[in-house]
Structures are given as structure tokens and as C-alpha cells.
Amino acid sequence: AGFYTKRTAEEALQELLADARRGTLAGSQPRLGRTFGDACAEWLRYVEHDKQRAPSTLTDYRNVVRGALLPEFGNETPLEQITTERIEQYRETLLNDGALSRRTVQKMLVLLFGILKRAKRRKWIASNPAEDVERVSVKRSGDFNVLTPVEVEAVARAAESDQDAAVFTVAAFTGLRLGELRALRWRDVDFGKQTII
What we know:
Elements: H1 6-22, H2 36-50, H3 55-73, H4 84-97, H5 102-121, H6 149-157, H7 162-174, H8 178-183, E1 189-190, E2 195-196
Antiparallel strand pairs: 1-2
């Protein structure tokens, strides 16, 4: 008790060597001084400039980062201190609290995964601790409330303004999402071909 046998010592050695080859051996990486706040700022810069996400998407990302992730994990927290166990604990707290839907919890954890993946790519951390966190499953009902063309026209007639009526009609007959509808401009509509680009 309290000591390795020859076999368990060899197994432990092989695990250490495997970690060293992967670059995940504890203490083998010099601390780069990067914080969770640095990682969030870099990821937001990346999705805005490199990935060119829509303004509405960026606003949503910023709200999650500032409103949930930074308060939870801390702006000044060294990245090395964010562990899989810590993220699992956060996941369980969110799910057990019940204040947020499973879909919202899933979205928050996907953003956290992306932030830490970007930090790993920048070589600020050796591995992504969110990689092994159990995913949040979202059960889809499969039920859709699909309106008939007559019902869509009735909704449009009941709209508060002509603009709202146009938005409802275009949304119903094109399948555009809200962000796409908001971004729609006259130059995107080809009336002759009856298409929206």
C-alpha cells in the first residue's frame, strides 16, 4: 500500500511518456501568463474579423461571454486553472438550476469550447479542457406548426404595419431567419426573376 509494484510503475511511466509526447505533461509547459479574459477577447476578435460572423451573432456571443462565462470563470483566471472538472461542475450547476433551457446551456458550453479551442490553437494552453466535457443533449419534439398560405396572409393582414406584414410574408415563404430578414436590402431582391439573393 502506498507504493508502486513493478507493473504499476511501468504503467505510470508509459502514461507520463504518452502525456509528454502529446505535450500535456503537467508542469512541462511554461506558463504563458494568458488569462481566460485574454482567451475570450481573442476568440471574439477571431469570430468577428476572421470568421466574419453577422453583427447579430456577434452581439449574442458578446452577451454570453460578458454575462455568463467571464463572471463564472473570471477575467483574470489563468487558463491553466480551467479544468475539465471545473467545466463539468459548471455544466451540472446550469442544468440542475433549471433557470436556463437545455438549448441555452448547450449554446453556452459550445461557445466555451470554441474559446478554449482558439486558445489551444494559439498555443496558450496545451489541451482544451472542454473537449472531454459531456455534451448537453437537446431533445427535439419534431413538431412544427406550419401555416397554410391562407393563414400566412391572415397573419400579414393582422400585422401592426405594412413593414411587419412584409416581414411575416417574406419569412413564411422564404424560410429566412430573423437575422437574414433584418439584413435584407432592396438590392438583394430580383423582382423580375422572383428571387431573393
